[in-house]
Amino acid sequence: MLEDYEAVSASTTTLFRYLAWFMNVVGHCLLFSPIIALLKWIPLVGWLLGAVVQIAAYIFSFVWGTFLHFLILGIAWIVYRPLYGLALLAIAGIFGVMMAL
Fold first, then answer.
1. Interval 7-25: pLDDT, tens
2. Scanning 3, 36, 69, 87, which has its CA 20 to 30 A from the CA of 28?
3. For position 88, what pLDDT does the model report?
4. What is the 3-state secondary structure (H, E, C) of the chain?
5. pTM of the model
């Protein structure tokens, strides 16, 4: 009975981690939606400018949301599983360097 509970708990935890990452990325995308809507009001070039900013916002939101997710997860895991925590912090560092370039 306890083994079944542990399996269900592990799968629920994994689901919440993926859901938290997805909501983080979507939330950061939604932060840019008022700016994109304002750019689309510009006559003649607004649709192009809005599309370019929208694609840039999607890319930035993906990289920034993934960076924050790995950073917070790495800090949280450093106490209980230092090797995984350091690996997640290294991945967060890679995403941080990607944003700096």
1. 778 888 889 999 999 999 9
2. 87
3. 92
4. CHHHHHHHHHHHHHHHHHHHHHHHHHHHHHHCHHHHHHHCCCCCCHHHHHHHHHHHHHHHHHHHHHHHHHHHHHHHHCCCCHHHHHHHHHHHHHHHHHHHC
5. 0.81
Provide the CB-side half-sphere exposure for 2 (13 A, CA). Answer: 0
Q: In the chain, pLDDT over 70 holds for what percent of residues?
A: 99
Structure tokens, 90: 């290294």
Give the CA-trace dihedral at 75, 27, 25, 49, to 10 degrees: -140
